[in-house]
Amino acid sequence: MDSTPEARLDQHGIILPIPPAPVATYVGTAVSGSLLVVSGQLPLVDGKLFATGKLGADVATEIGVEAARYCMINIIAQVRAAVGDLSRVRRVVRLGGFIACVPSFTQHAAVMNGASDLAVAIFGEAGRHARSTIGVPSLPLDAAVEVEGLFEIG
């Protein structure tokens, strides 16, 4: 089994999209020293939101997990666009997850595992990261999930 991030993408049948353009006045990525910050990514698939609405109301937890996975795919696409070669990622330092949900929803961690599990699957041990996941009343474009990332690059 090849151990490069690109090979792992192939093994999981993932073809990275062209990174989505920012929807407001910011950049998709910023580099400071050896740190790469990836702005929050929505669960876009072929330019359309995979899931809209709120977890605990009109979006099932399983759909939220898949939405977080699509967010992570878009994060990885942003990383590749910023650094060229995913092997330059030394570590996924942190992921931040925002879950649009009703106040009684408590499965934030399960939803965010969609992104975290993919980070580990693609980057191996370097994909293990610190994480915060919070519930919010709404997200841009009525997205159900948004994920941001911090990477150490070499």
UniProtKB/TrEMBL annotation:
Q: Which domain of life does the protein's organism represent?
A: Bacteria
Q: Which SUPFAM superfamilies match?
A: YjgF-like
Pfam families attached here? YjgF_endoribonc
Q: Could you tell me which residue ranges the Endoribonuclease L-PSP/chorismate mutase-like domain spans?
A: 6-145
Which protein, by its recorded name, is this? RidA family protein
